[in-house]
Each structure stands twice: as C-alpha cells, then as structure tokens.
Specification:
Largest sheet: 5 strands, antiparallel
Mean pLDDT: 75
Number of helices: 8
Radius of gyration: 40 Å
Low-confidence stretches: 1-33, 35-60
Order of helices and strands: HHHEHEHHEEEEEHH
Strand order of the largest sheet: 3-4-5-6-7
Number of strands: 7
Structural class: alpha+beta
Length: 216
C-alpha cells in the first residue's frame, strides 16, 4: 500500500478504489490533492512518502481518512577515502643543493653546473663495470657498429659505447635501456631493478653529488 509519489498520474495509486470513489464527495480527498505541495513532492522528482491511515469501516461509513507524510531516508552519496600523499625522498643531488642554499649560497649556481660532468664520470665507470664484470643478469655481449649491447636475463637490452678499460676521460654521457636514454647512473640502476641494488643506487647518487661539489 506504499508508493513514492513521482507524478500526478500515480498520486492515488496506493489508495483503495472505493476510497477514491467515495472520497470525491468528501473534503478528505480534497486534502489529498494538496498533499503533493504539503509533502514537498514535485512532478518527476522524489519527495516524501504519503501513508493513508484508514480502515474499511471508516471507508464504508464515509469517514475521513487520515494522511501523514514521511520523509524518505537520506541517501547521502558515499565519499571514497583519499589515498595518502606519497612523498618521494630527495635525491642526493637535491639534498646537497638544499644544504648549499642555506650554508653556502655562493655555490648555489656553480654546483648545478658541475652535475652533468659528474654524472658522466660516474656513468663511465659504471658502464665499464657492467661490460667487464661477470654479472649473472647479463647473458650476452653484442657488438653493434661503434657501440656495444648487453642482453639482460629479463630480455631487455642495454646499449652504450665501446668500453675502454683504460680510459680515464668521462666519455659515456648516456646509455640506452630498451631505447630509453639514461644519463644519471643512479636512475639507470634503479630502473634495471637488479637484486640488492638499493644500497648501490644510493652510493651512486652520493658519488655524483660529492664529485660535483668538489668541482664547484
């Protein structure tokens, strides 16, 4: 006997037919016509629920039906929890730059200028080790023109210049891992994802930062 009022055509759908027919002669039904406004029901929208409180004896005797309004449950939209903000740790290069800004502002411009050369120097030594050291995750060496390609155990390829074991110049400015260029040795080792490489990555980063600082 309950129905949400969504429009004029359904306004009396929940009442007994006999009550509707007899109610046309009573002011009780006249009051029902105003229930939409009383309960805040709009055409085509959700409003309050109307309950008819009557008995068949009341209907037969022509008595007045009682109508009450009940508000529908509050359907509050669910708010999904937000993921916590992830704060990435500063790199060794950024940490040194922040410290210099506080204690040695005069080096604030010279230190960043020395970072590319410091990265190349550390990357040259790293590339030499990757080529000449027996690493379990390097499965093959392939000469390609003027460069060298290392085939990794996971199927990726790491390509760089020919490695001279006696060269002292910083001649390796970048290597390519599956086509992506890397000039930062710490970033390269991070993306290689080798076992027990976390500590080595930190050491590479500090080596670049300290070398750039010594040259600044």
């Amino acid at each position: 006997m309950r129905r949400w009022l969504t429009g004029p055509g359904e306004r009396f759908g929940h009442l007994p037919q006999q009550a509707v027919e007899q109610g046309r002669r009573r002011k009780g039904v006249g009051a029902v016509r105003d229930i939409g406004a009383l309960c805040g029901v709009g055409v085509g929208g959700r409003g309050h629920e109307v309950h008819a409180l009557h008995s068949f004896s009341t209907v037969r005797s022509g008595g007045e039906d009682q109508y009450v309004c009940k508000s529908p449950p509050d359907l509050t939209s669910y708010s999904y929890p937000r993921s916590p903000t992830v704060h990435r740790p500063l790199t060794a290069e950024a940490e040194v730059a922040a410290e210099l800004a506080d204690v040695r502002p005069g080096l604030a411009d010279r230190y960043p200028a020395e970072l590319p050369g410091a990265r190349a120097a550390v990357l040259t030594r790293l590339w030499r080790a990757l080529v000449h050291e027996p690493l379990p995750w390097v499965t093959a060496h392939e000469s390609t023109g003027d460069g060298l390609t290392l085939r990794l155990s996971d199927g990726r390829r790491l390509r760089g210049p020919r490695a001279d074991p006696y060269a002292i110049a910083a001649y390796v400015t970048e290597v390519r891992l599956d086509g992506t260029a890397y000039g930062d040795p710490a970033r390269l080792m991070t993306d290689l994802g080798v076992a027990h490489g976390t500590g080595f990555v930190a050491e590479l980063g500090h080596s670049v930062a300290s070398l750039a600082l010594s040259r600044a």
